[in-house]
Amino acid sequence: MSPMHWHSRVWCGTLIDCPRIGQVRIRENQTVVVNQFGFIESVEGGPQTEEVLRARYPNSNIQILSPGCFLFPAFCDLHLHAPQFLYQGTGLHLPLMQWLEKYAFKAEERIDADPELARRTYTCLAKRLKEHGTGTVLLFGTIKERSNLILAEVMQSEGIRAFVGKLSMDKSSSKTYVEPSPTASLEAAKNFVETVRSLNTEGPKLVEPVITPRFVPTCSDELLDGLGKLAKDENVRIQSHLAEARDQVNWVERERGKPDIDVFDAHGLLTPRTIQAHCTFLGPACFDRLHDRGTAIAHCPLSNAYFSSQPFKLREALDFGVKVGLGTDIAGGYSIDIMNSMRTSVLVSRMREGQRTESLLVPSGPPVEEGESVSIDWKDSLYLATRGGAVSLGLPENAGRFEVGSPFDAQLIQLFDGSTQEGVGPLDFIDGVPNESAISEEMLEKWWCIGDMRNRIELWVQGRKCYERRQ
């Protein structure tokens, strides 16, 4: 039988993605063929009729997009504390280390003590992620294996690509929320990796384990050294927090006598498989080191506003070639919507640029030179939320964009009703739609600025639909 007879799905319409930083690519009249494994097999341009498509792909599901609709890559969330979803949107008035003690540790301990609560929390979390277009997520869990296995099972059953980290922490300011020893913590981490990898699944396996030292203050040198060796031996991704807040940075300097980036590096935890959250207190030399190590950064601008006394140097990190994606940092950030992270990342960068240019506005000061801006724009942030996240996670080569070989992780977005020409959800086109079917950059920017979940019709992860908006 010819290969054209076993394609699982064919899409025809407008594709929009961000192949590289600063670029938005709008391709009309595209035909995308997704095979039975959920990967894109071909992308071809040129208008097609339904009759021609059905003749060419007789055993495939064919979907022709309506005017006003387009496919966009699913979002990647590079930093989210799953158990903290329990108290999302509350308790953001304390410094980081106090906040952990009063809110985070207690919520995580509750989850570990109550499997039913864990399942309810994680099921609700999965629902909200899908509503907001997140198809891939890097998750911090808790210290107990059972709760993390529930998290992995829920994400797999809900069709979300999830990287699940069982917390490793043999030191803590909480006497009741800590693992008994480095040896016990390492044994638990190793067992968790093996168990997740052996989980039986229907369809594509979407869940993978992640080595997760919470951060330097909660991990002894012995534990960090063991986790570095485990990650190398088992070829597992690593996630943690790096240089996040002033009180945390001072804590590490006081306890270890050196910055946390040196601690991580000494134990083999800065690798091409590592994603470090925040990094707000890093400068050029550290960015250069992260680039050399291949380590990525999860930029969480909303939680930085609450817990860091200075913003992340995003533009500088990108200029050094560091891999960067976006994270929500639930519950340090109050919004699970990556679109909020995108908007906040641009806002913070513009404030940084305003501060920079104001500092130069003195009579004897040098002029602002072209190319020195530290701001990003909406196109840059769309890249970070999609392709940037995929690259940071080391997903298949073309993941995060619509190219041959990429997993079909996509959201179907509608900006306007093709029959009435009226905007959908919060979008209004007062002067009418300029072209009956074309999606322009101006229309896309409007969606980026004020669009919401009402514009999201469907979400697909590796060729399987996991969300459909209720009418």
**How much strand?**
15-25%
**CATH homologous superfamily grouping of the largest domain:** Metal-dependent hydrolases
Instruction: Determine the fraction of residues in helical runs and give it as a percent range.
Output: 25-40%
Give the CA-CA distance, first to last residue.
Answer: 40 Å
Number of helices: 14
Beta strands, count: 16
Mean pLDDT: 94
What's the CATH architecture name of the largest domain? Alpha-Beta Barrel
Tally of domains:
2
- Reported by name, the CATH topology of the largest domain is TIM Barrel
Overall morphology = globular
CATH C-level label of the largest domain: Alpha Beta
Topology as a string of helices (H) and strands (E)? EEEHEEEHHEHEHEHEHHEHEHHEHHEHEE
GO molecular function: guanine deaminase activity; zinc ion binding
Keywords: Hydrolase, Metal-binding, Zinc
Cofactor: Zn(2+)
Pfam families: Amidohydro_1
What is the topology?
Elements: E1 9-17, E2 25-34, E3 40-45, H1 50-56, E4 61-64, E5 69-73, E6 75-81, H2 96-113, H3 115-131, E7 134-140, H4 145-157, E8 161-168, H5 182-197, E9 207-213, H6 221-234, E10 237-242, H7 246-256, H8 260-266, E11 274-278, H9 284-293, E12 296-299, H10 301-307, H11 314-319, E13 324-326, H12 338-360, H13 378-393, E14 410-414, H14 441-450, E15 456-461, E16 464-468
Overview of this structure, please?
- One of its GO terms (cellular component) is cytosol.
- Its cofactor is Zn(2+).
- GO terms for molecular function: guanine deaminase activity; zinc ion binding.
- This protein has helices at 50-56, 96-113, 115-131, 145-157, 182-197, 221-234, 246-256, 260-266, 284-293, 301-307, 314-319, 338-360, 378-393, 441-450; strands at residues 9-17, 25-34, 40-45, 61-64, 69-73, 75-81, 134-140, 161-168, 207-213, 237-242, 274-278, 296-299, 324-326, 410-414, 456-461, 464-468.
- The strands form 3 sheets. It has an 8-stranded parallel sheet. It has a 4-stranded mixed sheet with strand order 3-2-1-4, sandwiched between helices.
- With 471 residues, it is of the alpha/beta class.
- Residues 1-6 have low confidence and may be disordered.
- Helix 2 packs across helix 3 and helix 5 runs parallel beside helix 6 (221-234).
- The protein has 14 helices and 16 strands.
- Helices cover 37% and strands 21% of the residues.
- The protein is globular, with a radius of gyration of 23 Å.
- The longest helix has 23 residues, at 338-360.
- The chain has 2 domains: 3-73 and 400-468, Urease, subunit C, domain 1 (Roll); 75-343 and 383-393, TIM Barrel.
